[in-house]
Specification:
The protein is α+β, with helices and mostly antiparallel strands. It is 20% helix and 30% strand. It has a domain of 73 residues.
Length: 135
């Protein structure tokens, strides 16, 4: 029969591996102003079609060399919209996650592709109150 000390010698590393395995991390990859699960009619015509924006993170020997741990979705959207100065939104958007492996490193990119549109901002109606509305 094994002594108590011998039994614990094998259980301790397994317990530490278990504790390490149940840990996790959460990252904010960007913010979406609007999102729909089905087609929504936006009453505007696209200004530019099929424009693309991306945000990438690069790793060398497993260490991030670009200042962040994950790419930012909002940065990719902003880069796509910036290609059409009159536009302020995107429609028919497709999101891609591209991973590339090099000999000593890798990259992870968020890529968005869609149509750039201009959505007019409505002025607040008379008598409406809220943040930023003067009466």
């Amino acid at each position: 029969m094994l002594s108590v000390r011998r039994k614990w010698r094998w259980r301790k590393p397994l317990f530490l591996v278990f504790l390490f395995a149940i840990g996790g991390c959460t990252f904010n990859g960007g913010t979406l102003t609007a999102l729909a699960t089905h087609n929504v009619n936006i009453p505007v015509q696209p200004m530019e079609r099929g424009l693309e924006g991306r945000d990438c993170i690069y790793f060398v020997l497993g260490l991030p060399v670009s200042g962040s741990l994950i790419p930012n979705l909002q940065e990719a959207e902003d880069r796509a919209i910036a290609q059409s100065p009159e536009g302020n939104a995107m429609q028919d958007v497709a999101l891609y996650v591209d991973q590339t492996w090099f000999v000593v490193g890798s990259s992870v990119c968020y890529r968005v592709r869609g149509d750039i549109v201009r959505i007019a901002q409505q002025a607040p109606s008379v008598g409406q109150s809220g943040p930023g509305v003067r009466q």
